[in-house]
Design a protein that fits this description.
The complex is a heterodimer of chains A (578) and B (164). Chain A has 578 residues and is α/β, with parallel strands linked by helices. Chain A has three domains: 171 residues, Rossmann fold (3-Layer(aba) Sandwich); 169 residues, 3-Layer(aba) Sandwich (Rossmann fold), CATH 3.40.50.1220; 179 residues, Thiamin diphosphate (ThDP)-binding fold, Pyr/PP domains (Rossmann fold, 3-Layer(aba) Sandwich), CATH 3.40.50.970. Chain A contains 20 helices and 22 strands. In chain A, α10 packs antiparallel against α13 and α14 packs parallel to α20. Chain B is an alpha+beta fold. Chain B has two domains: 77 residues, Alpha-Beta Plaits (2-Layer Sandwich), CATH 3.30.70.260; 74 residues, Alpha-Beta Plaits (2-Layer Sandwich), CATH 3.30.70.1150. Chain B contains four helices and nine strands; from the N terminus they run βαββαββαββαββ. Chain B is elongated and about 55 Å long. Classes of the chains: A alpha/beta (578), B alpha+beta (164). Chains A and B meet through β6 of A and α1 and α2 of B. The complex binds thiamine diphosphate and magnesium ion. Chain A: Pathway: Amino-acid biosynthesis; L-valine biosynthesis; L-valine from pyruvate: step 1/4; Amino-acid biosynthesis; L-isoleucine biosynthesis; L-isoleucine from 2-oxobutanoate: step 1/4. Chain A: InterPro entries: Acetolactate_synth_lsu, AHAS_TPP, DHS-like_NAD/FAD-binding_dom, THDP-binding, Thiamin_PyroP_enz_cen_dom, Thiamin_PyroP_enz_TPP-bd_dom, TPP_enz, TPP_enzyme_TPP-bd.
Chain lengths: 578, 164
Amino acid sequence: MEHLSGGDILIRALKDVGVKHVWGYPGGAALHIYDAIYRQEDVVHLLVRHEQAAVHAADGFSRATGEVGTALVTSGPGATNAITGIATAYMDSIPLVIISGQVPSSKIGQDAFQETDMVGVSRPIVKHSFLVTRAEDIAATIAKAYYIAATGRPGPVVVDIPKDVTEPNYKVPYDFPHEVKMRSYQPSEKGHRGQIKRAVKALLQAKRPVIYTGGGIVIDNAAEHLIAVARKLNFPVTNTLMGLGGYPGTDRQFIGMLGMHGTFEANTAMHHADVIFAVGARFDDRVTNELEKFCPMATIIHVDIDPTSVSKNVEADIPIVGTCTSVLKEVLSLIEQSDISPDTDAISDWWKQIDEWRAKHGLYTASRYEESSGETIKPQDVIKMLYKITDGKAIITSDVGQHQMFAAQYYLFDHPRQWINSGGLGTMGFGLPSAMGAKLAFPDTDVACVTGEGSIQMCIQELSACTQHNLPVKIINLNNSALGMVRQWQDMQYNSRYSQSVYEESLPDFVALAEAYGHVGMKITKFNELEDKMRECFAMKDRTVFMDICIDRSEHVYPMHMPGGSMRDLWLSKTERT
Amino acid sequence: MKRIISILMENEFGALSRVVGLFSQRGYNIDTLTVAPTDDETLSRLTLTTQGDTQMAEQIVKQLHKLIDTIKVVDLTEGAHIERELMLVKVKASENDSRTELKSCVEIFRGHIIDVTPSTYTVQLAGDTEKLDAFVEAVSHMGIMEVVRSGVSGISRGDKFVCA
Ligand SMILES: Cc1ncc(C[n+]2csc(CCOP(=O)(O)OP(=O)(O)O)c2C)c(N)n1
Ligand SMILES: [Mg+2]
């Protein structure tokens, strides 16, 4: 058997587990590992400019591909900088492995230079973590870490490695386990058949059903099975912010996103539903509004891989623990075998009702917002233009704020993994690095980061990484000169007292900034120049382009749930409500 | 309602802190906690008591089970079970009267006096929580100097058992 040092074992194990790219940033405790990276070519390292971005980029790569993303950081500040990225991935169940250097074993606990208890600090925001104490354990730990990250409900796994463990002069046999077995971890796959039968019966008897699906469909690659079940039943489908693309956004049966900024028709249909088929969604507070008023008439079928998600917020009438794919397949086959036939009359009445709602206050009704004119650019129109120019085929990443909601509402995602955003943690700064990760995975696909002038400044340093690694992403900056979403809440709940949500003319010249990093900058102030400029932007296939688009500063995101209300209690504009 | 939760887990670095962390992170309280390796040294048994209704207990059990290191998690209060706690109490006993009274109390509660000085008795007592509470109550007027309790250990009655 080959003898290798701990550093070499780590990199070899990464290769053997299938890793091709690692995002990271070096430092003292990780230097043996970085030297091992230097001496091989199988695993490519991409240097970022801040460790938070390393984790977000690995995350964006993972969301775009479904593979486990990998980040590498040093101890202390490197590790703590990674924390926001780890928490972001944890909230959205994204499989990542984060490898952190640690001070030498003999110094642990001594308050050594750049010592942070990484396993301790990250504990509440990881699926699992390891402290590797011997070079002999590295390969097996890496195999376990990737297995845990990717299976069951996925999530980030931290592997903390003290510097002495990667020491170049201590060599041990390299033995990579090709199978991982853990007696304490055996994720269940298939849902309970009896429960699935009950669910199918409830579905077939439904008169006002809604299929409500979340990120689980995307993560589990279950979109085709969802489509098959939805088509078979002719039921309306709504997606959560995390679930967009899990059902085709342009499909007739799609009624839009639900929740705080969901469509009128989706939220109203949920409220009136008699059966809710929730798949890979977790009844988040941004979806349900006030729990006590949530969907008063509905029988709730809840499918989730994670038993702790089921009946956590909303008691499920028919709980099913299993993967989205396995349960949906079983549902479809049981529907086909069943002797109950769906109540097509009731379903067609239900559709009539939903279509009426859609025609009255849907996102595409004329009165939704004032359209752009020569001088003012409406953010909604920018997203519609982006959709048109990219032919609906781009991968869109986003930051957090109004721009994120406009992107979610107005870009119709037909495919899973096309929409990449930080839904659970709501991390400003996620957009650009995650776009880099997606672009690395799909160099021939347009990748656009829809952002705001607030969010983009939280990871703007990565424009430099785009240059270094040739990652020509497009930055669509919806510049409203404010922390728009904060200002919207201040308008609605604090009598427009704009406490710390405006910058007093301190914003940088984004065009000059982009150019300083070696990119193309564009500033757009008039609606009638938007289309041409955006075409120009996307025509530059091999350039990173920063489009600084000055939008109407006063626009709010609607619909919006009224605090304390039910799902159908919505503000539809600054003056109209349901 | 009081819950006794028995957890069998890998005897590994960080496993205990993950269990304890879960409780604070999710806003549950731990009333008592005991932990030790089992006959199989690679496994630890952890018994904890907490308060909660059925739904909360269910959620706690599910959350504990989700931890990667846990192998089995059982809410013993769901079925017939035995609970025991060990207590060591140091009580003031310098006069003859109080020494006699304490001795008879210890006898009634089936405890043992395990250490004696001219001014104190140290008593060892095992039993369920209520019994230990009752003893403390009974001798409190004599002057308790120190109470050390192990926290609850539990096991289910009959043929049922929790193993890996
Ligand atoms: C790291 C972080 N800090 C603070 C917030 C709170 N927050 C949510 S939206 C928002 C404003 C975002 O401003 P901008 O990026 O310009 O987007 P806009 O709403 O204007 O479109 C803030 C501060 C957050 N989500 N993330
Ligand atoms: Mg803004």
